[in-house]
Design brief:
This protein has 189 residues and is an alpha+beta fold. It contains six helices and five strands. The strands form two sheets. It has a three-stranded antiparallel sheet, with no helix packed on it. Strands 1-2 form a two-stranded antiparallel ribbon.
């Protein structure tokens, strides 16, 4: 009798897990559908967004650097402000672009077979994403559309929007909330 109860319990757990997995549609945010879960506070959303922006390496390309004895460090006064508008791009050896992708010393400008691209301003300033809607941000991250608008050019390399397109709605919402909370830096890239 004890074996039958244990066997039935295992079957019930496996069946429940299978139903949840099948209904989740591979999107973790769908696991909570039908369950009353409290909405995260705006502070919690911003903190989660800051965490995600940090671990996803957004500062690597979108923040100008200052040179130190230990190499380049993030310029804390211009975090996430993109390629400095006053920084010209030096002459590029075009033959190198047949086999290489080149980054400037700030890691904010990139040259490759597609041409030259610049890291965008992600701060809350109007020259950044200050005027963007959440819908535009989602379109930019999910479809790789410049400024998240239909009928615009695709985002250029090395922006890994294809990878970010797999983020959950909750994660993208948190990232957007954090970016909208950043100090505005006027820098028209």
């Amino acid at each position: 009798m004890k074996k039958i109860i244990i066997s039935l319990s295992v079957v019930a757990l496996v069946t429940t897990g299978s139903i949840i997995a099948c209904n989740s549609d591979k999107n973790p945010s769908k696991l909570s559908e039908g369950i009353d879960m409290p909405e995260p506070s705006s502070d919690d959303l911003v903190k989660k967004g800051q965490y995600l922006v940090t671990i996803m390496g957004c500062n690597d390309c979108h923040s100008p650097k200052v040179m130190t004895p230990h190499g380049p460090k993030l310029d804390s006064s211009r975090l996430l402000s993109g390629h400095p508008e006053s920084m010209p791009v030096p002459e590029i050896e075009r033959t190198a672009l047949k086999s290489w992708v080149l980054f400037n010393h700030n890691l904010t400008a990139f040259a490759g077979p597609w041409g030259v691209s610049f890291a965008a301003n992600l701060t809350s300033d109007e020259t950044g994403i200050g005027n963007w809607t959440e819908s535009q941000f989602f379109k930019a991250m999910r479809e790789g559309r410049y400024k998240g608008m239909d009928n615009t050019r695709p985002m250029l390399p090395p922006m890994p929007w294809e990878m970010f397109s797999h983020a959950t709605d909750e994660d993208l919402r948190a990232i957007f909330a954090y970016l909208k909370s950043t100090p505005p830096v006027n820098n028209r890239v």
